Amino acid sequence: MPKSSQIVLKSESESIAVIGRLQAGDAFAKVAKELSLDAATKSQGGVLGWVTPQQLPPPIADALGTIGKGGFTKTPIKLSDVWVIVRIDDTRSSKIPSFEASQNQLKQAIIQQYLAEILKRLRESSKIIQ
User: How far is CA 94 from CA 2, 3, 29, 50, in A?
Assistant: First the structure.
């Protein structure tokens, strides 16, 4: 599971120029803050956070599979009307805990949900007398 960042641009030529800046040593976060069109990630330097390939559009997921930690795409990725440059900031394994390991946590979550529903019903049916 990668932690990734992106820079979203309006044209292929602009994207190629940005890749040149990154290859020359400009910081990815700095360029993302300056130029990215993605309002949701721009202020954080383009950081998308920890994502699984299933959460990303197929062209980006495929590209992330070809680069390593600290690397970025050397060719821009076309997505509908924008061009995207992605970087892998970090990686970690996405080990899913077994049911047995999660059982106590699941029980607590179910109990909390049940109690919340009971309280909601009590509040709705109660009458306050002054």
Answer: 9, 12, 25, 10
Indicate the pTM of the whole model.
0.69
- What domains does the chain contain, in order, with CATH numbers? 2-91 (3.10.50.40)
Q: What is the pLDDT of residues 1-13, one digit of tens each?
A: 789 999 999 999 9
Q: How far is CA 38 from CA 23, 26, 48, 59, 93, in A?
A: 22, 19, 10, 17, 27
Six-digit token pair at 51?
Answer: 């994502």
Residue 118 clears pLDDT 90, i.e. is over it: yes
Angle 28-35/12-23 helices, nearest 10 degrees?
150
Q: What gap in Å lies between CA 45 and CA 23, rounded to an integer? A: 17
CA atoms 78, 79, 83, 85: torsion sign: negative
Q: Nearest CA to 89 among 32, 49, 52?
A: 49
In sequence order, what are the residues at sequence separation of 6 or more whose Cβ sits closer than 8 angstroms to the Cβ of residue 42?
32, 33, 36
